[in-house]
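Risk mitigation, structural track. In case the binding assays with adenosine-5'-triphosphate fail to produce interpretable data, a predicted complex structure has been prepared as a fallback.
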Amino acid sequence: MLEPAKAQDERVAIEARGIVKEFGHGPAALRALDNVSITIRENEFFTLLGPSGCGKTTLLRMIAGFEYPTEGSILLHGQDIAELPPFKRPINTVFQSYALFPHLTVWENIAFGLQMLGRPKAEIASRVAAMLKLVRMEDLAQRRTDQISGGQGQRVALARALAPSPKVLLLDEPLSALDSKLRKEMQIELKRMQLETGITFVFVTHDQEEALTMSDRIAVMSRGKVLQVGSPWDIYDKPADRFVADFIGETNLLSAQIVGVADGAAKVRLTSGAEIAATIAEGAQPTGAVTIVVRPEHARAVHQGGQLSGVVENVIYFGTDTHIHIKMDGGETFMVRQQNSRTQSCGFQVGDRAGIEIAADAAQVLRD
Ligand code: ATP
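Fallback model:
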């Protein structure tokens, strides 16, 4: 997770207010967005994250002006932009298939939009030079774009979109066609470009790792709704509900009964009968049957003690760490992730009895 180096700008760039989007009419209508409200700040790297079909592209297309809301409004710097056609919005989009002009050079591709806007030649030359520097493509300026790699093409597409200095850049899964190594490099590059330009980036992805590494804030979406908005840390460490906890990273979801609540913390009883303390997610109702989340790296397998206990079912070595699956006395399986040391094995074998020690504040009661 990259910590944002900049002071967070609190001014609002984009606001989506009560957005509903239905495709089709009557009983067959499909509700792609269901009362979505989000606020994206100036100078922010904001990510819409969710599985395929959750509505993130529809929301992005609405900000760009390619789609109109059935209900609700989109505001840019406080102004409703419903009537503003896409080309009049100070917003540019980079798509997954970025469609460069293959017969033009890198330089000409980046200059193209500025020429269409009728900008003076000297301004175009200096702007293209700045963009080539930003995307580190100065050496390939005169290369035709059918003679460059996928990663280089994606950089040119970014430079082309950034050249007219949009206020907001929308990015629709721009890295998904790249191989995983290049993708990781481009994630760091994209974050750098956003910090250097200070432009608000709205990024769409279904890849949680991509969202966690680049974003200042993330909106997690499912079935047309925004379930949680927060920093990568909030989303990972304090997931609000079961979907978010399960979608982001690996996790233990445990059934429990609330036995008491005091000072904003709960005491819960797991199926084994063991009782543990748990914090309460925002909006969660701490009564009756609930689900508890514990991240695997926030617990340790121990030979003696621990709040929970069970029998080791599986020990999986991953190089940097080991995953130990423990079938708890109540029947549920708990996964512990322990960092490996160079000198010692994790100390557990299949069939061993193990205690599970959960770190303070690591267990949380989820919203339904
Ligand atoms: P993906 O990651 O697969 O692109 P997404 O989260 O971006 O998914 P959307 O493309 O926004 O999802 O689609 C949301 C829902 O709306 C889906 O069920 C989709 O089939 C539907 N949908 C999108 N565009 C249209 C359209 N033009 N006509 C009818 N249904 C549509």
